[in-house]
């Protein structure tokens, strides 16, 4: 029997994610959205690509959650995306309401599922979903670090004319302006990046990484990124479905790791059939450790704002 993955939100990120999963034939996909006809139309269109791409995966579009029952993984992308001039934090209360309502429905129909949260502001949304789900921390994880790291690796590859495959990096912390690229752990073919790019230029590349999402929003004008985000989501789906134990930067609930307790933050985790099977503690420089703490404090502010405005 094929696995079952539900994707909630049939917009840019959700639909592209569903398409990638269906094209690869990884799982049967259920696409849920509140707009009548949208998930149904996109699902049928995707399934009709099956004979061409050689996939037997079924794709079902729906406005309710019955069809999602018993999903192995549920990816939540429902919400609004930012427009030029908006920060991810500007989406807080709108998306809190949407992600909250979606989580309650998802959990009702798939009590054993693993939740991958994507809606922004990511770290606050994953915390909200975790609180409402009642799931253990292993089964609630947020997608951000793979995307931020992919942007960093892309910019480094352009700078050095080197293959992205040879660039190894970690971007940790919150999915926002305070994300923390670990320069000391970044290597190109095993060579530390700091010996290949001078400090001031490296700082520019780090800043472009921090602004990576906004750069796309500025160009698109009507929405935010979805090709790289969906690729990052599918890398997490793959690790869980196929129990690969891949170590990937994801938003995970910390209970003392990295000196952070009771909060989601982007850290390297081992992803497998059990979800977040392990939180990997890499050694940080004092500056990186301080930056991670400060990034967590930014996330805590959003979490406090949500607690002060229960909806
Ligand atoms: N239930 C289900 N779907 C919903 C709900 C809800 N309660 N509310 C909104 N949606 C759907 C919308 O109808 C829309 O189709 O979520 C979809 C969002 O799609 P887009 O507007 O295209 O946004 P997208 O670019 O996919 O981004 C979604 O992911 O990366 C983040 O910041 C981004 O928070 C945003 C989310």
Q: Can you tell me about this structure?
A:
- By secondary structure, the protein is an alpha/beta fold.
- The protein folds into two domains: 3-142, NAD(P)-binding Rossmann-like Domain (Rossmann fold); 145-308, L-2-Hydroxyisocaproate Dehydrogenase, Chain A, domain 2 (Alpha-Beta Complex), CATH 3.90.110.10.
- It contains ten helices and 14 strands.
- It has helices at 12-24, 38-47, 50-53, 92-109, 122-133, 145-160, 199-210, 212-220, 227-241, 286-308; strands spanning 3-8, 27-32, 59-62, 73-76, 114-117, 140-142, 167-168, 171-172, 180-181, 187-188, 191-192, 246-255, 261-272, 275-279.
- The strands form four sheets. The protein has a six-stranded parallel β-sheet, with helices on both faces.
- A hairpin with a 2-residue loop joins strand 13 and strand 14.
- It is globular, with a radius of gyration of 19 Å.
- Residues 8-14, 32-35, 38, 77-82, 91, 95, 98, 101-102, 118-120, 223-224, 226, 229 line the site of adenosine-5-diphosphoribose.
- Adenosine-5-diphosphoribose binds at residues 8-14, 32-35, 38, 77-82, 91, 95, 98, 101-102, 118-120, 223-224, 226, 229.
Tell me the strand order in the biggest sheet. 3-2-1-4-5-6
Main β-sheet: number of strands, strand sense, barrel status? 6 strands, parallel
What is the typical, i.e. mean, pLDDT?
Answer: 95
Taken in chain order, the helices and strands follow as EHEHHEEHEHEHEEEEEHHHEEEH
Low-confidence runs = none
What quaternary form is this? single chain
Count of DSSP H/I helices: 10
CATH architecture of the largest domain: Alpha-Beta Complex
Rounded Rg:
19 Å
Tell me the domain tally.
2
Per the principal axes of the C-alpha atoms, what is the gross shape? globular
CATH topology of the largest domain: L-2-Hydroxyisocaproate Dehydrogenase, Chain A, domain 2
Helix amount: 40-55%
What ligands are attached or bound here?
adenosine-5-diphosphoribose
Give the N-to-C terminal Cα separation.
40 Å
CATH domain class name of the largest domain:
Alpha Beta
CATH homologous superfamily (4th level) name of the largest domain: Lactate dehydrogenase/glycoside hydrolase, family 4, C-terminal
């Amino acid at each position: 029997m094929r696995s079952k993955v539900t994707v909630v939100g049939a917009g840019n990120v959700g639909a592209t994610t569903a398409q990638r999963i269906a094209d690869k034939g990884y799982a049967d996909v259920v696409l849920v959205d509140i707009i009548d006809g949208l998930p149904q139309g996109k699902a049928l269109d995707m399934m009709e690509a099956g004979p061409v791409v050689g996939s037997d995966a079924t794709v079902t579009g729906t406005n309710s959650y019955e069809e999602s029952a018993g999903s192995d993984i549920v990816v939540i992308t429902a919400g609004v995306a930012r427009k030029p001039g908006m920060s991810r934090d500007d989406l807080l209360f709108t998306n809190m309401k949407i992600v909250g309502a979606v989580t309650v429905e998802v959990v009702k129909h798939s009590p054993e599922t693993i939740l991958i949260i994507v809606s922004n502001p990511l770290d606050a949304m994953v915390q909200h979903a975790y609180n409402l789900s009642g799931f253990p921390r292993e089964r609630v994880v947020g997608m951000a670090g793979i995307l931020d790291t992919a942007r960093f690796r892309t910019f480094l590859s352009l700078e050095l004319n080197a293959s992205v495959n040879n660039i190894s990096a970690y971007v940790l912390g919150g999915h926002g302006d305070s994300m923390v690229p670990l320069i000391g752990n970044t290597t190109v073919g095993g060579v530390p990046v700091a010996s290949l790019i001078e400090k001031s230029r490296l700082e520019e590349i780090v800043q472009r990484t921090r602004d990576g999402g906004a750069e796309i929003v500025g160009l698109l004008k009507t929405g935010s990124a979805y090709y790289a985000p969906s690729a990052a989501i599918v890398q997490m789906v793959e690790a869980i479905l196929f129990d690969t134990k891949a170590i990937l930067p994801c938003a995970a609930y910390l209970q003392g790791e990295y000196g952070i307790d009771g909060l989601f933050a982007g850290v390297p985790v081992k992803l497998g059939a059990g979800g977040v099977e392990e939180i990997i503690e890499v050694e940080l420089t004092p500056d990186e450790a301080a930056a991670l703490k400060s990034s967590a404090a930014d996330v805590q502010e959003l979490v406090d704002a949500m607690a002060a405005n229960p909806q």
